[in-house]
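Entry type: protein chain
Record version: 2
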Amino acid sequence: MKRGCSLKAGTLAAIALTMSACSTVSVESKRYLRVPMVAATDPAKVEILRHEPRRPHDRLGEVALSPSGNPPVSEMEAALRSEAARLGADAVVLVQDKTRRMGSFVTGPWWARSHTPVLQRLIIAVAIRYR
């Protein structure tokens, strides 16, 4: 009986590991034109804001995240912070978080087709540096 329990626990652990491995976060950034190059900052100190701050700041560029699967929020925030820190940002302002339709996945024979939408989440943030 114990052998069956350990086998189930091992199977569950393998499934959990496989599920977590399927989630990824793709991140890229674009520096704005005519923005001077600044030194990278510490990712742990980069703030994530929902609204543009009233404090004087300069916009450095945009950071785009495309998560696939269902990665944890902490993983997405870490990717956002590290990419913004690479640009030299003190904070990022979230400006867009939406899911868009990328296409359809068609299955079945031609007389009984089934269409399933292919969706992708896109998160855009503006990297800023305080004056």
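Comment: The chain has one domain: 23-130.
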